Amino acid sequence: MLRFVAKRLALAVPTLWAVLTLVFVLVRIVPGDPTIVILGDQASPAARAALRERLGLDQPLWSQYWDFMVQILHGDLGRSLVTNRPIITDVGAVLPFTIELTVAALVIGVVIGVPLGVMAARRRDGFADWFARIFSLAGLSFPAFVSGILLLICFAVQLRWFPVISTANASDPMERLRALVLPAFNLGLIMVAYVTRVTRSGMLKALGEDYIRTARAKGLPQRIVVWRHALRNVLIPIVTVIGLYLGVLIGNAVVTEIVFNRPGLGKLIVTALNQRDYALLQGLMVVSAFAIVVANILTDLTYGLVDPRVKTA
């Protein structure tokens, strides 16, 4: 197992290096001058040149790239061009809210999606199957901002079951949970859709295999046949789709946090874009990229737990 983990971690290093390099390039090809953002349009050329020198923007690109990589290795994301606060401080203040939202959406996707997909496969072309297919299609069709607005109108404005503004700063755990329900369900809809479709497709194939017919011929209860034998062989594609679309969840979290007015990386990204705070934007992209790489590593490690044969591959 340790060898399997070491191999996956070693493969993640070049991936992370390539992503960091791409982030460095993308931030520097964005139009606009950071010195104008900080000092304003009326700043003198001398003041702008002095600021460029202080920020290291007057250095060659290879020198900036080297400094960037060294800072990342030391866990330093730099300072905001607008507020001059350490970026790691700003990210640390909102990251727990984004993690909370993403994990809640992930749990909703698995808890609802897997049973719904299993039920649809067991009752193929029946009411449950049609319901699961329509529900998953709706989850894939609605953009996050549309479904978020509809949820707010229905459950927050009309029924008043949940708060309209999900500040997520409530000291009361129950109030914080109420503020999390709608954003998490909105973000989890797309995960429910993907997990349901993959589970249904995999279960339909598994339930027609010879080993399932053998298990039924031995007189095993239906729940054992379905949940222990059939579903176990469908876990690999389910884990794959969860790992792949975890990045989609992180991206949709940006829209969800804006719609529900939640603190998080999404609102911080929008703030950085509006203020043209390239340093903050670069730091946020690094954090997002690192989160996706970590999610892919955890997905690979989960393969080894679900199917021990993967460890020898």
Which short descriptors sum up this protein?
14 helices, MetI-like fold, single chain, mainly alpha, about 325 residues
Concise description?
It is found in: Cell membrane. This protein has helices spanning 2-28, 34-39, 45-55, 61-73, 87-122, 127-141, 144-158, 173-206, 210-217, 222-230, 235-244, 246-259, 265-275, 278-306.
Structural summary, described in words:
The protein has 313 residues and is an all-alpha fold. It has a domain at 95-272: MetI-like fold, CATH 1.10.3720.10. It has 14 helices and no strands. α5 packs antiparallel against α6. The protein is globular, with a radius of gyration of 24 Å. The model has no long low-confidence stretch (mean pLDDT 80). InterPro entries: BPD_transp_1_N, MetI-like, MetI-like_sf.
Distance between the termini: 12 Å
Mean pLDDT: 80
What does the largest sheet look like?
none
Query: Which word captures the global form?
Result: globular
- Helical/strand content category: mainly alpha
Q: CATH architecture of the domain at 95-272, please?
A: Orthogonal Bundle
Total strands: 0
Q: What proportion of the residues is helical, as a percent range?
A: over 70%
Reading off the top of the CATH hierarchy, the class of the domain at 95-272 is best stated as Mainly Alpha
Residues in β-strands, percent: under 5%
Low-confidence stretches: none
Helix count, DSSP H or I runs of 4 or more residues: 14
Order of helices and strands: HHHHHHHHHHHHHH
Rg, Å, rounded: 24 Å
CATH level 3 topology of the domain at 95-272? MetI-like fold
CATH superfamily of the domain at 95-272: MetI-like
- Oligomeric assembly: single chain
Main location: membrane
GO biological process, one term: transmembrane transport
Pfam families: BPD_transp_1 (PF00528), BPD_transp_1_N (PF19300)
Transmembrane segments: 93-118, 130-159, 179-196, 234-260, 280-306
